[in-house]
Specification:
alpha+beta; Serine Threonine Protein Phosphatase 5, Tetratricopeptide repeat; 4 domains; 16-stranded antiparallel barrel; two-stranded antiparallel ribbon; elongated
Length: 562
């Protein structure tokens, strides 16, 4: 069969073989029969074109067995190893070629690219420098080196290389501006810059991928998909674009979630004494490309301390969230909670928030939220809740420095009221994927009327305003945060494997020094599965708290791009 399907015209034979061409028996017969290195290399290029790197390597190995010194076969072997993911082996082969054929442009270019794919950015940039020495008039090494510098978190060097490249290729300046905006987190302006760039350079694969990434961060999934589709039309085997598009399918697929949340607090006299447990099972589904609806079933178990009763309740949450455009996003939810026994009032809570992106200068949110205020048995039996009207803002002043603020007006069910204000400043000492960040914050709280404990014969029988009611209260906090990204790929939407640790401390005007330790971990695996857990421990003389949460989810993905 191989003899019949492998005549002198390799292309025709390849197409005639159909699905059989990748089967082990066919490949074995082909490499056993064919004794012309050039024909085997042509078969290898056809296999590589279609992403069949295993059969391609078999053909190249057979060609090398026939002619071990063949430059074309050795070069094809190194490049195919890189495409198949074995970049270390590819680099060893390329370095051997560089010794045997010093100054060969094709070898150095393949070496520079493979170094960058292997995240060896310094080595890649050094190799691109050798390429520029070979031909200073060639704009390709300059532009590719500038991209690599940004991949390696070297923006100053990247900007210099783009500026040098612009003298040879004017479009490099436009790409450099868009790349700088993307690096600095100016995603709206980066998106618009890439839209202009890809209109001028429709075949610019780097710009199309970055355009998709900017759209991903902004939640514009339709524009993200369009950018990846255009890129895959240019290069059907573009590895990152194919993976990114598949991950987009996972993110947009209907999903189920199950998990639980534990909370315990004790302090502020008798005001904070409760242990709470909530179990959730939910379903979420996309509404178009930009919105998602959530429906969750809850079971609550509320256990006030110093009481023998656990109050159980059932309820549901209906939520909707998404983006209208790059400047506006919204999120809203409503939860009903129905107690099964003990004659407790049912509770309805909810939240609605609009966020405005002020052209990357700041993100401003405005909204309303009704929260349970159930920190003790008296609050539980009174069905206490709190209505908030809030305004928040956040801005990334630089890639390392950010600031955020929030103001809330509060109205309690029992007629009490209050307000709170918070200001925080964060600074990152290191960059992704290992980020060490310091957060410094201050807050003020005030409540109109203080809580009042009512005793009868030495027994606590009631609390008027049964919640913490700070008055003219100020607090300061400092927290050191560590975030480590262990993901295989670093792009927006990639499968995540991340953890974080935080250690903080502070004090307040109630002379209550505190320390808090927290941690979180998220792991996405087997394409549609994810696991997330969070924990916190807070200790102070007047108030202690512990929390633990664990969540599983699964996305019902469909077939990818044909």
């Amino acid at each position: 069969q191989a003899a019949r399907l492998a005549p002198d015209d390799a292309e025709a034979a390849y197409e005639a073989a159909g699905d059989e061409r990748t089967r082990e028996a066919f490949v074995a017969a082909l490499v056993a029969r064919e004794n012309r290195p050039e024909a085997l290399l042509r078969w290898a290029s056809l296999y590589s074109r279609d992403g069949a790197h295993g059969p391609a390597l078999r053909c190249i190995d057979a060609a090398l067995a026939l002619d071990p010194k063949s430059f074309q076969a050795r070069e094809a072997h190194a490049e195919t190893l890189a495409w198949s993911g074995d970049r270390d082996a590819s680099l060893r082969e390329l370095q051997a070629l560089d010794r045997d054929f010093p100054g060969n442009f094709k070898v150095l270019l393949a070496q520079a690219r493979t170094f960058s794919w292997n995240r060896q950015y310094d080595e890649s940039l050094a190799t691109y420098a050798r390429l520029r020495d070979l031909d200073p008039s060639d704009p390709v090494p300059l532009r590719e080196a500038a991209r690599v510098a940004y991949w390696g978190k070297m923006p100053e060097q990247g900007a210099e290389l783009y500026a040098a490249g612009a003298r040879l290729q004017p479009e490099a300046a436009q790409e450099g501006q868009a790349k700088a905006l993307l690096h600095d987190g100016r995603f709206i302006r980066a998106l618009h810059g890439y839209e202009e760039l890809t209109a001028a350079e429709p075949a610019n694969q780097e710009a199309l991928f970055d355009q998709g990434q900017a759209a991903c961060v902004l939640g514009l999934c339709d524009q993200e998909r369009e950018a990846y589709d255009r890129l895959l039309d240019l290069d059907p085997l573009h590895g990152q674009a194919g993976v990114a598009l598949r991950r987009l399918e996972v993110r947009q697929a209907p999903a189920v979630t199950a998990g639980g949340d534990y909370w315990r607090e004790d302090g502020h006299g008798d005001l904070s004494r409760i242990e709470r447990l909530r179990f959730d099972a939910g379903l979420s589904s996309p509404l178009g490309e930009r919105f998602r609806m959530r429906l969750t079933q809850h079971l609550w178990l509320d256990s006030p301390e110093r009481e023998s009763t656990t109050y159980d309740a059932l309820g549901q949450t209906l939520g909707l969230g998404g983006v209208v455009n790059e400047y506006l996003r919204l999120d809203a939810s409503w939860t009903n909670k129905r107690y099964n026994e003990h004659g407790l009032d049912n509770l309805d809570t909810g939240r609605a928030r609009l966020e405005f992106n002020l052209d990357d200068l700041a993100r401003v949110g405005v909204g309303w939220e009704r929260q349970e205020e159930l920190a003790n048995g008296f609050a539980l039996r009174k069905g206490m809740y709190l209505d908030n009207v809030f305004l928040d803002a956040a801005a990334d002043l630089t890639r390392k420095l950010d600031v955020s603020a929030e103001v809330r007006g509060k109205d309690y069910r029992d007629g009490n009221s209050g307000d709170s204000e918070r200001l925080a400043l964060g600074y990152a000492f290191t960059d992704h994927p290992r980020k060490l960040r310091l957060l410094v914050s201050g807050e003020r709280r005030d409540t109109k009327t203080e809580s009042l404990s009512v005793y009868t014969g030495g027994t606590l029988t009631d609390i008027v305003h049964p919640y913490w009611t700070p008055q003219d209260y100020y607090a300061g906090w400092a927290e050191l945060q560590w975030e480590h990204d262990l993901s295989k790929e670093f792009f927006c939407g990639a499968e995540k494997h991340q953890y974080g640790l935080a250690l903080g401390g502070g004090t307040d005007t109630e002379e209550n020094p505190a320390v808090r330790v927290s941690a979180h971990w998220r792991y996405e695996f087997l394409e549609g599965w994810s696991l997330e857990t969070r924990g916190l421990m807070h200790r102070s003389p007047q108030w202690d708290a512990d929390s633990l949460a664990l969540w599983f989810s699964y996305a019902f993905t469909q077939g990818g791009r044909p």
